[in-house]
UniProtKB/TrEMBL annotation:
Residues 21-251 form the AB hydrolase-1 domain. InterPro entries: AB_hydrolase_1, AB_hydrolase_fold, Carboxylesterase_BioH, Epox_hydrolase-like. GO terms for molecular function: hydrolase activity. It holds the Pfam family Abhydrolase_1. Keywords: Hydrolase. This is Alpha/beta hydrolase.
Length: 265
């Protein structure tokens, strides 16, 4: 099993293919297995899937569960594997980590950035109408993470897939979410929810692709379109038959769109 130790945490990753490196970053309480359909891309692309600390098959450290810490882990990971000229694909919280990474380290390592189903801030704000939840709802989610983490996992799974759902995908998602200990769930769920990256969007000066599931039940697609409208030169791609996971729900189309974008970077 490939692992690398950075900033005191042993991180699990998988790499396949040879060519332009595409680094996939998963969502909060999720894991790299969500990108199972992206680990066998056509010739000419290297797929790199990373589990953040505390998630998936990475070490369940007691500390370091903030978006800035995950971004610092990402930079150390890229340095350790000598990865440059990468296309960074952030899904959900993975996009927040991507914006934090750009804020901390700039874009020198990046040749492109892909945002999948994420807005720049999740908590409702007076000047941002696309919030996912208010503070009281966030507190309820954190309490559920401690009181009944399986119920929390089920709550997320129910909203991530368009239509009737898929039993095999449901099991995969539930299993990945259940790998994250409740204390880590609460810590990172709170931290990522109070971050605001609206001011960073204009600093994304590499080619950017923004993807949104038209039927997204977790985030407001209009909030994702907000990202595309405020990121210099960003392209917007809508996935009509997807909720929060177009790379799982429409993998063939997602992979075609992704690799075509990479070729343009």
């Amino acid at each position: 099993m490939p692992t690398v130790t950075v900033n005191g945490a042993e991180l699990y990753y998988e790499s396949s293919g040879d060519g332009t490196p595409i680094v996939f970053l998963h969502g909060v309480m999720m894991g790299g297995r969500f990108f199972t359909e992206q680990q066998d891309l056509p010739e000419g692309y290297q797929s790199v899937v990373l589990d953040f600390r505390g998630h998936g098959r990475s070490e369940k450290t007691e500390t370091g569960h903030t978006v800035p810490a995950y971004a610092a882990d990402l930079e150390a990971f890229l340095e350790e594997l000598a990865l440059d000229d990468i296309v960074l694909v952030g899904w959900s919280m993975g996009s927040l980590v991507g914006w934090e990474y750009i804020d901390q380290f700039g874009t020198d390592r990046l040749s492109g950035f892909v945002v999948v189903d994420q807005q720049p801030v999740d908590l409702e704000q007076e000047d941002f109408e696309h919030g996912v939840f208010d503070f009281d709802e966030l507190v309820d989610l954190m309490e559920l993470a401690q009181r009944d983490p399986h119920a929390l996992a089920g709550l997320f799974v129910d909203q991530m897939i368009h239509g009737e759902g898929n039993e095999e995908l449901d099991r995969l998602m539930f299993d990945e979410i259940s790998r994250v200990p409740p204390a880590i769930k609460s810590a990172i769920l709170f931290d990522q929810s109070v971050r605001d990256y609206r001011d960073v969007l204009e600093d994304v000066v590499v080619p950017t692709l923004v993807c949104t599931g038209v039927d997204d039940a977790l985030v407001d697609p209009a909030g994702v379109e907000y990202v595309a409208a405020r990121t210099p030169g960003a392209e917007l791609e809508r996935f009509e038959e997807s909720s929060h996971c177009p790379f799982l729900e429409q993998p063939d189309r997602f992979n075609r769109v992704l690799t075509a974008f990479v070729d343009r970077c």
